[in-house]
Amino acid sequence: MNGYKIAVIGDKNSVNGFKALGLDVFSAESSEEAKGMLHRLAKESDLYAIIYITEELAQGMMDEINRHKDDVVPAVILIPSRNGSLGLGMSALSSAVERAVGSGIL
Amino acid sequence: MASASIKPTRMELNRTKARLKTATRGHKLLKDKRDELMRQFMLIIKQNKELRQKVEAGLAEAMRAMSAASSVMSPDMLEQALLYSKQSVDVGMELKNVMSVNVPAYTFRERSEDPSEIFPYSYAMTSGELDDAIGMFSQTFKDMLELARIEKTMQLLAQEIEKTRRRVNALEYVMIPEMQQTIKFITMKLEENERANTTRLMKVKDTILQEAHGYEQ
């Protein structure tokens, strides 16, 4: 299927560079704000195949993000914000391993 | 085990034996599926780890460059420069089947082939730092797309592995032992009935013999 788009959620300074690439940028300053955005974007699941979200905002809304884990669309992917990586993306990796294996092996 | 609810009949025995056979076969198949999924998963994990490090490093650099650009340009100018993008992306998604798990495969098309289209502003009004920053974002973006695919695949595989693992365990530790117990119970019960029957016949024979001839064996 074609015609999907890509969204980026993050604080303004971190994500405005993506605008130039043709991605849909949504700026949010707090996790609360981002929650609403993610919910809205995910509901229009025919539109956005991938939603990138900065770790800083993701920190306060892991439940909302994990809810999309088992769906094919959208893929919610964490990216570091301007202030550097918090290691959340990596911990998502080991939590997936834990889920699959039953215990952490990494 | 609920041995009280099992009817110790030959029919029940045959049925349980058939079920056990199916369950054993299913268990073997599911175990193979789990192992193969696990192998795929491990490959994906490795890729994911490398790719994520690459993306995080790339983005950190791009965002640093962006900070540099915003320090030499006024915020308003920067905003204005990025206000309307010339480029737009169109993502196609196909589902690929990996061991009965549907994982996405993205195809990515930019509206315009011209690589300079990522600069939506005129060069006269903006600083060179912004160009650098946008260039870096553009470079990292290819990896980001790949990361999205890998990460989603990883999540979906993890879910499927978890499900399969539960099934394998349920079969191995609950269903199969239970059926084996049932079979044992029914077999023993049937044998006991058989013995009881033999004893009764012997007893009856004795009685008849005594009545007919008046002697004891």
SSE topology:
The complex is a heterodimer of chains A (106) and B (217).
Chain A: E1 5-10, H1 12-19, E2 24-27, H2 31-43, E3 48-54, H3 55-58, H4 62-66, E4 75-79, H5 88-101
Parallel strand pairs in A: 1-2, 1-3, 3-4
Chain B: H1 10-72, H2 75-82, E1 89-98, E2 101-110, H3 128-213
Antiparallel strand pairs in B: 1-2
Share of β-strand residues of chain B? 5-15%
What would CATH call the class of one domain in chain B?
Answer: Mainly Alpha
- Overall morphology of chain B: rod-shaped
- CATH level 3 topology of one domain in chain B: Helix Hairpins
What's the assembly state of these chains? heterodimer
Elements of chain B, N to C (H/E):
HHEEH
**Amount of beta strand of chain A:** 15-25%
Distance between the termini of chain A: 36 Å
Biggest beta sheet summary of chain B: 2 strands, antiparallel
State the share of residues found in helices of chain A, binned by percent: 40-55%
Order of helical and strand elements of chain A: EHEHEHHEH
Q: C-alpha Rg of chain B, in Å? A: 36 Å
How would you sum up this structure, described in words?
The complex is a heterodimer of chains A (106) and B (217). With 106 residues, chain A is α/β, with parallel strands linked by helices. Chain A has one domain (5-101): ATPase, V1 complex, subunit F (Rossmann fold). Chain A has five helices and four strands. Chain A is globular, with a radius of gyration of 14 Å. The termini of chain A are far apart. Chain B has a domain at 27-174: Helix Hairpins, CATH 1.10.287. Helix content of chain B is 72%, strand content 9%. Chain B is rod-shaped and about 130 Å long. At the A-B interface, helix 1, strand 3, strand 4 and helix 5 of A face helix 1, helix 2, strand 1, strand 2 and helix 3 of B.
